[in-house]
User: Fold Carnitine acyl carnitine carrier from Lentinula edodes.
Amino acid sequence: MSEAEPSVTTAVSATADNVKAFVAGGFGGVCAVLVGHPFDLTKTRLQTAPSGTYTGAIDVVKKILVRDGVLGVYRGIVPPLLGVTPIFAVSFWAYDASKKLISALTKSDTLSTTQLAAAGFLSAVPSTAVTAPVERAKVLLQVQGQGLSEQKYKGVTGVLRHMYQEGGLRSVFRGSGATLARDGPGSAAYFAAYEVTKKALTPAGSSPSDLNLGSIICAGGVAGVAMWSLAIPPDVLKSRIQAAPKDTYSGILDCARKTIAQDGVAALWKGFGPAMARAFPANAATFLGSVATIYLQGIID
Assistant:
């Protein structure tokens, strides 16, 4: 056997692992959107509506149902459904690659919780390039028709055309800084909590990779709760920046200052209830979907 053969085999194996992480993350993301979108819509409307528009999450849902019917709770779902595969695929791929990078730098096969959190934070950097424009389109579709406002967009094509005509790529990527401010710490907590919970649920002498689906669902749900426990304030600012007319805010700090001045510090936690209600089931579905995909890939292989 030549010396080149082991390196070729290693490269092929690494590529296969990356592809599996990419596909698994994408399918897991679709599951998360289908389960969690009504909660996300409620959260976004609470975050962006003028003070006094709603009395709470239940009032948001009630008004959506009265105005738009049952399908109204899925308003704005097309952008995240179209974008969720690349978003989650890039996130899971970047997390897997970041773990390998940190492992190589530390020359350790077992990463600490802090190192896992660092890998999670790094995973948010490339995924923000996909997440920010998808979230911008989603938010604009979710908030239109809120209160007595007109419905400007008739679908994804309309909202994308509006964003680009408003200010080119700068408009399309509005809120990228706030998106990273949310997803960096959020992803750190997300992946670290998932790994720690899996380890805690693993019986002595067993491997976390052998956990049953019930444990995977639990770990995924805990990961979602951990993420959104940190992510709400930057998520509020992201939603406001992305929903507001051009030049309303000069950046995330200006948005924070104006939000606090107008509505008080408590405004930074608007939508906390729906976000936490969504966190466990949506993220349990994410990891369940990703693990099921990897399992099916193993059968096919």
User: Anything to note?
Assistant: Residues 47 and 270 are 5 Å apart (CA to CA).
